[in-house]
UniProtKB/TrEMBL annotation, chain A:
Gene3D superfamilies: 1.20.1050.10, Glutaredoxin (3.40.30.10). GO terms for molecular function: glutathione transferase activity. Keywords: Transferase. InterPro entries: Glutathione-S-Trfase_C-like, Glutathione-S-Trfase_C_sf, Glutathione_S-Trfase, Glutathione_S-Trfase_N, GST_C, GST_C_Tau, Omega/Tau-like, Thioredoxin-like_sf. This is Probable glutathione S-transferase GSTU1. Residues 88-208 form the GST C-terminal domain. The gene is PARC. Belongs to the GST superfamily.
Automatic annotation (TrEMBL), chain B:
This is Probable glutathione S-transferase GSTU1. Conjugation of reduced glutathione to a wide number of exogenous and endogenous hydrophobic electrophiles. It catalyses: RX + glutathione = an S-substituted glutathione + a halide anion + H(+). Residues 137-267 form the GST C-terminal domain. It comes from Dendrobium catenatum. The keyword RNA-binding does not apply. Residues 52-131 form the GST N-terminal domain.
Length: 220, 268
């Protein structure tokens, strides 16, 4: 295969960017990561993602790709080995459903635990929502090693980056996440080089979230 | 088989199909109850898996359901259509989509697939020989997915505000909606369809909303033809396809439905 140019417009703390890093490392693809300053967006970022103006953006031979799950499916199609999506159409639909659930439900609930609850009632509601989605994910995982079964795949990759944010959710949500099944799954994922490399330390993320909360007017 | 409500039963249909947001909060179950329910669900899943064929759980007016109907029609797949009463959801629906409890759900040989764009991609993969819905090139596929996702994220939510809200909030929604349509029109450019020469995922994602254009225009007070004439021409081209023509309802029928929704939500 001819040498291709792969650049990731990246952000160290973004779970969405972590997904792309994990996918690229799983495939053994060499890429250049360019950290983006989201408070002062580069012209390249704005040009590459004019619709959402967000990271991550993958530039493959200068062609931009946006939205983390779409980028990951692209990576899986261009570099097919090892596969991140199953081969059966039904299992692919199931994987896409749960990756989408993580985006629509889990990530939304997680954000609320540290960013939008301004009263005790709102925080209580955010906590309940978070635990509900976590329970649903846990049920889907069941007794499997990974969400996709025996191999690390799309759903695992979609969810594991949020593990680096768990300290922040727990601290500001006022709860402790206790799930032996999920803990075992987290450990399994963290043993993978791609995941260990991609996820920042929880303390660093917590520091970052503390700073963001001050900006949003919490914890004055 | 496409469902079309007969004149005169429309009111009954409207009343039956209005959906309340599912407000059933999860209550703590006794552990024994959980085990019984779990065993019953497993038996049901086994029974469902033994059924052959294609079934679509749907609502006649749903743009999301229409995406699936269009895809199935493009692929000439025979299926059983089941109209759901969203204020009294069937056990089959609740079993097939326990997470969201929403239509559309495609049930193929007893196995449920949920979320309209995921269903459409599934249909494309399972019946690949007829009329591809996604292109074969990975970059083109990523672009198609991106724009279908953009339609999902933007059109329905903003469109809903156009018939629900009033005053300042309505004006804001109108400005936003025009921007969304112009963005889509820019992406369409001078192409026949969003995917180029072939009707594809993005066309399927967006075209059902064109039946709602008349309602959006009426309640928000603007003309989509004036703002985005290329998009309107594209919609006409899509409606020349049999799959689209037999699936979409006339804007006036959707407008009646929206009128009903407005009363329900107290927007009138």
């Amino acid at each position: 295969m001819s040498r291709s140019n792969v650049v990731l417009l990246d952000h160290w703390v973004s779970p969405y960017a972590m997904r792309v890093r994990i996918a690229l490392w799983e495939k053994g693809v060499e890429f250049e990561s360019r950290q983006q300053d989201l408070g002062n967006k580069s012209e390249l970022l704005l040009r590459s993602n004019p619709i959402y103006k967000k990271a991550p953006v993958l530039l493959h031979d200068d062609k931009p790709l946006c939205e983390s799950l779409i980028i990951v499916e692209y990576i899986d199609e261009v570099w097919p080995s090892p596969p991140l999506l199953p081969s059966s159409s039904y299992e692919r639909a199931t994987a896409r459903f749960w990756a989408d659930f993580i985006d629509k439900k889990f990530a939304e609930a997680a954000i609320k635990t540290w960013r939008s609850a301004r009263s005790a009632e709102e925080l209580e509601a955010a906590r309940n929502e978070f635990f509900e989605t976590l329970k649903q994910l846990e049920e889907f995982l069941g007794e499997k090693d990974y969400f996709g079964g025996e191999t690390f795949g799309l759903v695992d990759l979609a969810l594991i980056p949020f593990w680096s944010w768990f300290s922040a959710y727990e601290k500001f949500g006022g709860f402790k996440i206790e799930s032996p099944k999920l803990s075992a799954w987290i450990q399994r994922c963290m043993e993978r080089e791609s995941v260990a490399k991609a996820l920042p330390a929880q303390e660093k993320v917590l520091e970052f979230v503390c700073m963001l909360r001050k900006i949003f007017g919490f914890d004055q | 088989m496409t469902f079309k409500p007969k004149n005169g039963t429309l009111q009954k249909q409207l009343a039956a199909s209005f959906s309340l947001i599912n407000t059933s909060a999860s209550r703590p179950f006794h552990q024994t109850t959980c085990v019984h329910i779990s065993q019953r669900l497993k038996r049901e899943k086994r029974r469902m898996a033994e059924e052959k064929g294609v079934k679509l759980l749907d609502l006649w007016s749903s743009p999301f359901g229409q995406r699936c109907r269009i895809a199935l029609a493009e692929k000439e797949v025979e299926y059983e259509y089941k109209e759901e009463n969203l204020s009294d959801k069937s056990e089959l629906l609740l079993k097939s989509n326990p997470i969201y409890k929403k239509i559309p759900v495609l049930i193929h040989d007893g196995k449920p697939v949920c979320e309209s764009l995921i269903i459409v991609q599934y249909i494309d993969e399972v019946w690949p020989s007829k009329t591809p819905i996604l292109p074969s090139d990975p970059y083109a596929r990523a672009q198609a997915r991106f724009w279908a996702d953009y339609v999902d994220k933007k059109v329905y939510e903003c469109g809903t505000r156009l018939w629900k809200l009033k005053g300042e909030a309505l004006q804001e929604a109108k400005e936003e909606f025009i921007l969304i349509l112009k963005t889509l029109e820019a992406e369409l450019g001078d192409k026949k369809y969003f995917g180029g020469e072939t009707f594809g995922l993005v066309d399927i994602a967006l075209v059902p909303f064109t039946s709602w254009f008349y309602s959006y225009e009426t309640y928000a007070g603007f003309s989509i033809e004036q703002e985005c004439s290329k998009l309107v021409s594209w919609a006409k081209r899509c409606k020349e396809r049999a799959s689209v023509a037999k699936t979409l309802y006339e804007p006036k029928k959707i407008h009646e439905f929206v009128g009903y929704l407005r009363k329900k939500y107290g927007a009138e």
